[in-house]
Input
Amino acid sequence: MNGEIGADSNKMVRDDMMKSIEEFQKLNLPSFDNMPNVFTHNDLGVQNLIVSDDNKKKGIIDWEWAGSYPICEEYFRSYKPIIYDDYLKNYL
Output
């Protein structure tokens, strides 16, 4: 029973987040056309952060995707695991 509740909760949160992303994109994507390119890590996530035992930031690793991208790129890439997870569940 606990697994079912957890799975249902995760799906609700994911569905709500995806709805929010879609609404944000509808409202803002046209304005992204005129945004400048900036230097960005392009894969910034907890897996690429080095943190000390006392929770102080020490560094960022895994720079192979870094470069000059539209300013919104890092924002949208942060949702990739959520979208990819849905893809795997639906199509594989």
Summary: The two ends are 26 Å apart (CA to CA). Residues 5 and 79 are 23 Å apart (CA to CA). The helical segments are 2-32, 73-77, 80-91.
